[in-house]
Amino acid sequence: PRPILLTRHGESQDNVRGRIGGDTAISEKGEIYSKKLANFVRKRLKSERAASIWTSTLQRTILTASPIVGFPKIQWRALDEINAGVCDGMTYEEIKKNMPEEYESRKKDKLRYRYPRGESYLDVIQRLEPVIIELERQRAPVVVISHQAVLRALYAYFADRPLKEVPHIEMPLHTIIEIQMGVTGVVEKRYKLMD
Length: 195
Ligand code: F6P
Fold this sequence. Notes:
This is Fructose-6-phosphate-2-kinase/fructose-2, 6-bisphosphatase. It comes from Medicago truncatula. This protein is α/β, with parallel strands linked by helices. It has eight helices and six strands, in the order βααβαβααααβαββ. The chain has helices at about 15, 30-45, 60-65, 90-100, 100-110, 120-125, 130-135, 150-160; strands at about 5-10, 50-55, 75, 140-145, 175-180, 185-190. The chain has a six-stranded mixed β-sheet with strand order 3-2-4-1-5-6, with helices on both faces. β5 (about 175-180) and β6 (about 185-190) form a beta hairpin. α4 (about 90-100) crosses α5 (about 100-110). The longest helix is centred in the first third of the chain and has 17 residues, at about 30-45. It is globular. The model has no long low-confidence stretch (mean pLDDT about 95). The site of 6-O-phosphono-beta-D-fructofuranose has 9 residues, from α8.
């Protein structure tokens, strides 16, 4: 069975500063990850000529994919990170201090909470539907380079995790989650390539 490889982009400038959203480039550490990832993909998908690399439309995923050669790359807007609306570019500390009600309502119901002029996890889950349909249609392996919230939703779908857990699934940087759909169900492996 063909694998689906899920990974977040390499560490971004905003990750370093603790800012959410945005469209910054990757850091030096992020670049190191992009090379390790390319190496991993080259070995793992050696004889898989029909494989493809899917990214979001944000710089940090496109840059993370750039050292990967020999496979077609497709950009999906539906793979962009959760839209934090008026909170885009803020740190969690700043949200807590400047918009305490927003901070509290998100904490109370992270799945349903929608950022003002932005999205909720439920919104993200809904917009991922075409991506999921296309992923299920693919016969060849796919490497999905996306973002924390989006990958939680995608992973939950394939690993059959309940909705309420989605916003809390661990989705660390610099880690590849490999999913294989077998006859007996889903087999999952995690490869932590660096800290
Ligand atoms: O901090 C990185 C990030 O991808 C942000 O852009 C995004 O808002 C956040 O993670 C999503 O995670 P959480 O739902 O836990 O805030």
